Fold:
Amino acid sequence: MRKLNLLLLLLIPFISQAQNDCEGFYIAKEGMSSTMKSYNAKGKFESSSISTILSRKNIPGGIELEVKAETKDEKDKIQFSSNLTARCIDNVFYMDMKGLIPEETMKGWENMEMSIKGDFLETPSDLKAGQKLKDGLMNIEVSSSGMSMMTMVFEVKNRIVEGFEDITTSAGTFSCAKISYDIHMKMLFNMQLKAVEWLAKGVGPVRVESYRGDKLQGYSELAELKK
Structure:
């Protein structure tokens, strides 16, 4: 269950209030960070996920961010750390989908070569109820000594803006866009999940829920925002 929660958190688009012409749904000031705490379906704390903006630079039409994604277990021990890239161009934010890969999987590939090809997950800053957002796709090939060992496919599909709601967590009350989507993972076995997330402008994810069928698998909430 913990793996599903962490995966969903890393899937969340890093949409940010970067500059006047690129406002959106995530932090973007250098040094800012947000902490999400994850729980199982019964409300037991499992892990925390910290996103920190390491750097921001101007690029044609917008900005580029380097984001550190870090995961800690229930004992506050670091389990996973990776740097990701995000870009905001013409009021559309693009998030590197490498964040889809669970940390348990990365540890198993430490001595292997990986070839990763995929989309940047796109989310515009001017969301409207009923709006359909673009899908995302990523392919991973794992090899050893030039021999292919495994191919993996991650898909994010059926992304829809359900509406707008106020969400309250220990970090405060936020006006959020509610977005639902499906996650398809094809590896040695197939897995399908449904996720619902609430994003606040200038803040990012406030709450994320994961479902298998209609059954809640776990959820995450914003616990801390450092500016």
Remarks:
- The first strand starts at residue 33 and ends at 40.
